[in-house]
Amino acid sequence: MKRTVTAFALVAAVSSTAACSLEGTGSSDDTVRVVVGYQSKTINTVTAGTLLRAQGYLEQRLQSLTDSTGVEYSVEWQDYDTGAPITAQMVAEKIDIGSMGDYPMLINGSRTQSNPNAETEIVSVTGYNPKGALNMVVVPPESPARSLTDLAGQKISASVGSAGHGTLVQALDRAGVDSDTDVEVLNQQPQVGSSALESGQVAALSQFVAWPGLLVFQDKAQLLYDGAELNVPTLHGVVVRESYAADHPEVLDAFLRAQLDATRFIQTEPLEASRIVAEDSGLPQEVVYLYNGPGGTSFDTTLKPNLVDALKGDVPYLKSIGDFEELSIDGFVDDGPLRTAFEAEGLDYDATLAQTGNPAEVTGVDPVCGSDATDPALAGEIWFDGADTTQVAADPTCLLRAVKYARAAGETIRAAYVPDAELGTRWFADKALWVRDGETYLPFITYAAVDRFLATHPTATVVDYDTAVNEVRP
Q: Where is the SsuA/THI5-like domain (predicted)?
């Protein structure tokens, strides 16, 4: 039975903790302790991790409780590379709240459910992609591979049980490649796999954000497969130990309200948020902004039905790797505490739940083409060096014109972002594969996507980025 946090329960819990000394799990003497596990480099969890911590939103919310009740709170942040060690610590009852990807969250629920003190539930989403573009497969820059079938007989690095691994297995299956017999999957942490890819020990790397974008940005890899081809939502979210939530509902409420603070900030100040996350995580800001900027990850805390359905669809994969005990997804997902947090903030949960578009799209006036950026499937951004804001491009062709003018004026471009012409995935303009079709220029992010387009547009021509910039008409 889920311990849904109600407003009445919160008042009762705060009054109770103020009236007596605190003992047992999550408390020491007169201080309530909460341990939060997060992944600083998994930047779709930033609203419950890196950004949340850097901005001090949770501590501020807890201080408000202290000011009103006299109860002291202490927050301990623990940073990990993947979700697996967070789950291990939650099984051991040493982490109270954790953020991770969809597959790790399900493994978390499966492994903790046998222990009432460790049992967890999903209480919010941090970020998601409706098509699955948060997971990708990359190969070395010089690789001849153009599709997943070209990896048959090769070694592929992935973190087994991660969202990146799940995408790989499902994608290989659709491509007719057996992940057990046709390829060798090496279970490696992301940074280990990145080194293995660079040194030629593996032919490909399948990982979650921000690793694919980081390696491509550093010219250490090229994109082979976009998880959006699966057209299955992928998400990251927050899990909490139910026993901790029952003992300290006011802490969970403070956490979720702090997550709403971080979500509002990343939606309204994406460039500044990316700077903060970059400084705290050590990732290049250009890479952080690729995913955390408008048109990238959908930062929306609500537990949407299609995301819950996607979790149910992940179960067969988890069973296939022999690492999953049966778990009731409907019983594992609980939006009660988040609804309470929304209500306390004066927000409409159901209205937000019903929204399907990205809460932060590229909008504004394109100064080069003189038109509004109204289509998120076309709109891009240019980030000039030294600028504290970006310039909008209404479509990819307009973006190329803007780059052309900037080069002629001697301006330095820090990064430019465009949506893939086939699936809409946001990507670096200079790392995209460009096709000229008449007077229109279209960016694609994989060779497979280019081949699919050329098959139905025989007069279109492949051009490199610099050629496209040079020849685009003013």
A: 121-273
Residue where the block lists tokens 């900037």: 406
Q: Which DSSP helix (H) or strand (E) runs through 209?
A: none
Closest CA to 224 of 243, 205, 248: 205
Q: Which amino acid is located at 315 in the chain?
A: V
Helix (H, G, I), strand (E, B) or coil at 102: helix
Is the CB of residue 306 less than 8 Å from the CB of residue 333? no
Contacts of 199 (CB under 8 A, 6+ apart): none
Residue 282, Ramachandran bin (φ over 0: left; ψ between -120 and 50: alpha; else beta): left
Q: Which residue has the tokens 């600028």?
A: 387
Which of 42, 12, 7 is closest to 211 using CA atoms?
42
Judging by beta carbons within 10 Å of its beta carbon (0-12, 13-18, 19+), is residue 449 exposed, middle or buried?
A: buried
Nearest to 98 by CA among 13, 35, 189: 35
Handedness of CA 325, 46, 444, 310 (dihedral sign): positive
Cα–Cα dist 393/472, whole Å:
14
Among 419, 392, 385, residue whose Cα is nearest residue 129: 419
Q: Domain residue spans in the chain?
A: 7-128+235-354, 135-230, 365-471
pLDDT at 127 (0 to 100): 98
pLDDT digits (tens, 9 = 90+) for 32-86: 999 999 999 999 999 999 999 999 999 999 999 999 999 999 999 999 999 999 9
Backbone angles phi, psi at 381, to 5 degrees: -140, 150
Q: Please state whether 48 falls in left (phi above 0), alpha (psi between -120 and 50) or beta.
A: alpha
**Quick one: tokens of 447?**
């060779």
The CATH code of the domain at 7-128+235-354 is 3.40.190.10
C-alpha distances (whole Å) from 309 to each of 50, 130, 234 are: 28, 12, 11
Whole-angstrom distance, CA of residue 201 vs CA of residue 367: 47
For 297, which DSSP code? S
CA 384 and chain centroid, separation: 25
What confidence tens digit (pLDDT) does each residue in 144-200 have? 999 999 999 999 999 998 999 999 999 999 999 999 999 999 999 999 999 999 999
Tell me, which fold does domain 135-230 have in CATH? D-Maltodextrin-Binding Protein; domain 2 (3.40.190)
- State mean pLDDT over 344-354: 98
